[in-house]
Amino acid sequence: TQTASSTDALQFPAGFLWGSATASYQIEGAVNEGGRTPSIWDTFSHTPGRVERGDTGDVADDHYHRFREDVAMMKRLGLTTYRFSVAWPRITPQVTADSLGPVNPEGIGFYSDLVDELLAAGISPSITLYHWDLPQALEDAGGWTSRTTAERFGEYAEVVAAALGDRVPLFITLNEPWCSAYLGYASGVHAPGRTDDAAALSAVHHLNLAHGLAAASIRRASPSSRVALTLNLAWVCPETDSQQDAEAARRVDGLQNRVFLDPVLRGSYPADVQADTAAVTDWSFVQPGDLEIISAPLDVLGVNYYSPTRVRHWTRERPKEHADGHGEGHASPWIACEDVEFPFQHDRKTDMGWSIDPRGMTELLLRIAREAPGLEIMVTENGAAFPDVVNEEGRVVDTDRIDYLKSHLAAVHEAIEGGAPVTGYYLWSLLDNFEWAWGYAKRFGIVHVDYDTQVRTPKDSALFYADVIRGNALPS
Ligand code: GBH
């Protein structure tokens, strides 16, 4: 006799959105076409030593030329929604600190055609306005350490929302400002590659402000569109229940979660984070009125989840363990966290070295539901990198990825049952793509890309995901 739980599929709520996600610099290529000017990732990837094997996004998946083929693939898989990002340097290629400059019709045209292609395929477009490809000219004027970058971003958002909003139901202002600020300006493993803690905290605020200004722009230019912000929030798990490990967890929670959630949800910065970082900055970049702009109501909170964050107090008796996935030899993204250690875990890991723990997904979604009651949540990224295993018939048998997806979809389901209002899930990623500092060495796609021929081949995980979508359920 079989129990109900072992035979029943886990059914998702009616109307649950099933998607996949990508980002412009990771897939488009065509960096010198259509009037596009350089972004910080062009500069960074072309700087020797910054990206594995010297890989760049110059060609990537050539999606700029192959988007119709890629949309056809999405349609075959049955996606109901697709999250992609707009490359700012395609929209206003002449932007400077002082002025947005002219709108580039070719840039708008590319995304307009993509939106039309998606709608014709019955796929709802979700646009991320910023997934890390800042126009280089703005970086030259201070980048996210400069208030003018946030102001120009608000104007750029208005342009995109006005041009596409009638056909785009959801705009996500920023993707993972944690990465833009701390990996871009503190650890330097992402563009622009700076290592200056004060700059990183100023970037945190200007990114939050950019979100607020863009949200207001979208409301004005396209009142029918919904507005979201995507954060890579952490499920911070202290190793023991000691008071010292709790202190380590508080620091990390402050820098990763609360410094982004509090201004948006409560209109304030966490006092403990400001106190912890007082020796780094006096936070004078926060000006009167900023927090009102940042805390305007959101329609959806986007959550990206990959792995848990385990922390403990560093005793200084032995070298600090590095479990941050970027290895040694770079500055820490964790400001004022000298006493915090990210202990190495002896558990299963993806090809990124990130621990696999779906419980963190459930806990994180439930926490958001508790702290922001009634706020709709979407999982805007979740997925895993694994090396390809190709069988004799040439199939990519990515059983590891299917296992990862199964356990994480079950975790999302559990959070929904526990009361978290999760309305959609975007798998990262549709295609193998340019994995930032790792270049093409890491493959996150459910569709394999041969970088010599640009041939796309669905992996077994793509067929698995198509099944999930068809049944609106995780099969037993
Ligand atoms: C996302 O970043 C990006 O939005 C997407 O573009 C990218 O391709 C995808 O994920 C895969 O990387 O580093 O061990 O401390 C996620 C980046 C991953 C950074 C998890 C923080 C914390 C674990 N984040 N990481 S660790």
Brief account:
This protein has 476 residues and is of the alpha/beta class. The protein has helices spanning 4-7, 24-27, 40-45, 63-77, 88-91, 105-120, 136-140, 147-164, 177-185, 197-221, 243-266, 271-276, 290-294, 359-371, 399-417, 460-471, and strands at residues 10-11, 17-21, 81-85, 124-130, 170-175, 226-231, 236-238, 300-304, 309-313, 340-341, 376-382, 422-428, 447-449, 456-458, 473-474.
Describe what this molecule looks like in 3D.
By secondary structure, the chain is of the alpha/beta class. It is 39% helix and 14% strand. The strands form four sheets. The chain has an eight-stranded parallel barrel, surrounded by five helices. A three-stranded mixed sheet has the order 7-9-10, covered by helices on one side. The protein has a two-stranded antiparallel ribbon with strand order 1-15. The model has no long low-confidence stretch (mean pLDDT 96). The structure holds ligand GBH. Ligand GBH binds next to loops. Ligand GBH binds at residues 23, 26, 175-176, 179, 232, 304, 306-307, 324-325, 354, 381, 428, 435, 444.
What overall geometry do the principal axes of the alpha carbons give? globular
Strand order of the largest sheet: 2-3-4-5-6-8-11-12
How far do the termini sit from each other? 15 Å
Major β-sheet annotation: 8 strands, parallel, barrel
Mean pLDDT: 96
Enzyme class: hydrolase
Family: Belongs to the glycosyl hydrolase 1 family.
Pfam family, one: Glyco_hydro_1
Catalytic activity: Hydrolysis of terminal, non-reducing beta-D-glucosyl residues with release of beta-D-glucose
